Amino acid sequence: MTAQTANGGTIALTYREAVRAALREALEADPRVFLMGEDVGRYGGCYAVSTGLLAEFGPERIRDTPLSESSFVGAGIGAALGGMRPIVEIMTVNFSLLAIDQIVNNAATIRHMSGGQFSIPLVIRMATGGGRQLAAQHSHSLEGWYAHIPGIRVVTPATLEDARGMLASALACPDPVLIFENALLYNDKGEIPADAGAVDIDRAAIRRPGRDVSLITYGGSLGKTLAAAESLAGQGVDAEVVDLRTLRPLDDATILGSVRRTRRAVIVDEGWRSVGIAAEIMARIMEQAFYDLDAPVARVCSEEVPIPYAKHLEDAALPQTDKIIRAVEHLMGNHG
Amino acid sequence: MTPTEATNDDRPALPERAQALDLLRGMIRIRRFEEKCAELYSAMKIRGFLHLCIGEEAIPVGVMPTLVPEDAIVATYREHGHALARGMPMGAVMAEMYGKAGGCSRGRGGSMHLFDAATRFYGGNAIVGGGLPLAVGLALAERMQGRPNVAACFFGEGAVAEGEFHESMNLAALWNLPVLFLCENNLYAMGTALQLSESNTDIHAKAASYGMTSEAVDAMDVLAVGAAARRATEAIRAGEGPYFLELRTYRFRPHSMFDPELYRNKEEVEAWKQRGPIVTFSQRLREAGLLDDAALAGIEAEVAREVDAAVAFAEASEWEPVGDLARDVYTEEDAA
């Protein structure tokens, strides 16, 4: 599966290939960069992201680890302290909980706790999200949890350009960056400019401009939200879609700018409703744009259950295009 | 648990007088510094947790001379002795206890989180076991950058019950990394005796099971600690991979200033005090004609002056402005 050059200076590739291209570029560009994680080498990555990189870069830089998330994430922190630029891959966000001591108690704190003497230029990539019938220990969306923690950055590439470009910016960042790749996106295919490179990891992006309502989302829910916006256009509702891209720090200016224009907002978040990133965005809108609103802010989140195995139950648990449409219809009907 | 006596024949030979007095001075320096800290705690100049290493001074003083400035050090929340023996200025350490801007961590860390880039001192880690993966990563960084340095990791025997201990043993041995594991076995994890928390109380045997060289050392004898650390660092620098020292010691003071010491009896503490590293080493030096009352008084006076100066420095140091509260949560790249 190699990227193919197309005409017009673009290349066709999958999200998986975009991440791989970003990894390859980073490994070629900087001898301090190495990739470490479970099955990243000989197996080729549990989502086949790093396939082929072991042959290209060797076992020192494409480093298979034991099943010991806490020690290899901690070793990534130590290696970053020691002058390297590690990229640590954790198979899924659920497994990252085995390393949460290192992420929360060390990676996020050492800069501050050392009075600014030590930075941790570490990148941690992990898959997130449901929709693959993998049940409750492989399907959760805990990126909102991590966004609670000062000292780390949390980014959620939802597009091919971001899959290709966020890694370089994360590696250039002197502080820990967590990259959440929604596992349903790996097979997404499309075209990006052949010379696509680093993209900012500071700002949200308006993926679809609109006048009537702001649909604010990120990661695996972006596609569903854009589909909802297309459907709503057929009903005469012109929805704007904001892709947060970065959950910490949140880009208040873009979020609030959109809401002030459309005067309505629906947050779409694959995390659970209670105490999640959607709640945080709603609070910021209340704090800063309350008098610009024509309707209460709404949200579409995962139902408050561990994500179940059976497909019809899993579908019902996750945000879906029709749920987003209904939420917008409700908002417009009641308050338009 | 009662102390085990080393026979006189087991003891390493005394070094030359100047070196011997340096070791004695190093231990007295830590002892008097910590006694002053306890006093200042009662005077409410120092707050939070204060964990004293009184009784355990032979470990940092024995180990540090075997390390070079380029080596990296990770320690625990009971790390005043390590910081001082490593060469961190006593004034900056004391000011950190005060929470002042002149503290080594700008008042962000306190007693448990002493950091110093100049001496590659990567903290005071207050999560038991949490520092071990960092040391593995620091060692990995040394190896990957072709540097001959050692990552020395101090931790208590309580850490042996943590998963991070076993993960780190495995990773360091698997990757043959230059880590010096220094387990300070003072027999109590806070108030829980070793035999109440470990199925096998022979800690050095656990490390050996991971395929690394491992020794148990009488850590009430500064010369025994120094000799073992010399063997260990030479082996590590020769590329033999990680090395483990179980340093058998005893904490004379309570776990922290809040500890009523209900879990051990006074007779036990007194028996260990008879074997205290300062009293026994002083006695040995006297017997060898290397120390007399005048020399000891000279050392005490010199140390007292340094402690007084450290207190004066801490008293005179400014408070960090509250306006700088959020400083160093993230790296401010343009601030330099």
TrEMBL record, chain A:
GO molecular function annotations of the record: oxidoreductase activity
CDD domains membership: TPP_PYR_E1-PDHc-beta_like (cd07036)
InterPro entries: THDP-binding, Transketo_C/PFOR_II, Transketolase-like_Pyr-bd, Transketolase_C
Superkingdom in the source lineage: Bacteria
The entry's keywords: Oxidoreductase, Pyruvate, Thiamine pyrophosphate
SMART domains the record matches: Transket_pyr
Cofactor: thiamine diphosphate
NCBIfam families registered for this protein in UniProt: PRK09212.1
Name of the featured protein: Pyruvate dehydrogenase subunit beta
Organism annotation: Thalassobaculum fulvum
Gene that encodes the chain: acoB
From TrEMBL, chain B:
Protein EC: 1.2.4.1
UniProt keyword Glycoprotein, yes or no: no
Cofactor: thiamine diphosphate
Keywords of this entry: Oxidoreductase, Pyruvate, Thiamine pyrophosphate
First-tier enzyme category under EC: oxidoreductase
Catalytic activity: N(6)-[(R)-lipoyl]-L-lysyl-[protein] + pyruvate + H(+) = N(6)-[(R)-S(8)-acetyldihydrolipoyl]-L-lysyl-[protein] + CO2
GO biological-process terms attached to the record: pyruvate decarboxylation to acetyl-CoA
SUPFAM superfamilies hit by this protein: Thiamin diphosphate-binding fold (THDP-binding)
One Pfam family cited in the UniProt record for this chain: E1_dh
Domain Dehydrogenase E1 component: from-to ranges: 26-317
GO molecular-function terms, A-Z: pyruvate dehydrogenase (acetyl-transferring) activity
NCBIfam families (alphabetical): PDH_E1_alph_y
Assembly: Heterodimer of an alpha and a beta chain.
Functional note: The pyruvate dehydrogenase complex catalyzes the overall conversion of pyruvate to acetyl-CoA and CO(2). It contains multiple copies of three enzymatic components: pyruvate dehydrogenase (E1), dihydrolipoamide acetyltransferase (E2) and lipoamide dehydrogenase (E3).
Protein name in UniProt: Pyruvate dehydrogenase E1 component subunit alpha
Species of provenance: Thalassobaculum fulvum
Annotated gene: pdhA
